[in-house]
Amino acid sequence: MAQRKVDLPQGTLDLLILRTLALSPENGWAISERIHQVSNEVLRVQQGSLYPALHRLERRGWIKARWAASENNRRAKYYELTKAGRRQLENEKSDWKKLTAAVAQVLGTT
């Protein structure tokens, strides 16, 4: 049975990218694949959303990029968290937990 497409709420992609990069520096394709795999193939991040988000995070100073050879020996841009990005990740995780708890509370009411 095919899974129904789930759209990410505004701002959620930034959180997912920051969390993915907390593990290790990755190129854009690997970030997208990691999110897809870890979400049990529910979340699929399209390039049209991923790269603008990566550029936005880089402008904010939360990630930095460098060019390097990929696993298949092609030139790729690798992204990694900065110190500010690690702090932002913790802030966003805390905010996400508060938000999901509040939504769960509302959904649980009758």
Descriptive account of the structure:
The chain has helices at residues 12-23, 28-38, 47-59, 83-108, and strands at residues 26-27, 63-69, 75-81. By secondary structure, the chain is of the alpha+beta class. It has a single domain, classed as Arc Repressor Mutant, subunit A (Orthogonal Bundle), CATH 1.10.10. The chain has a three-stranded antiparallel sheet. The N and C termini lie far apart (31 Å). The model has no long low-confidence stretch (mean pLDDT 92).
Which descriptors apply to this entry?
110 residues, alpha+beta, Arc Repressor Mutant, subunit A, three-stranded antiparallel beta sheet, 15% strand
How would you concisely characterize the structure shown here?
The chain is α+β, with helices and mostly antiparallel strands and 110 residues long. The protein is built from four helices and three strands.
Write the layout of secondary structure elements.
Layout (H helix, E strand, L loop, with lengths): L11 H12 L2 E2 H11 L8 H13 L3 E7 L5 E7 L1 H26 L2
Antiparallel strand pairs: 1-3, 2-3
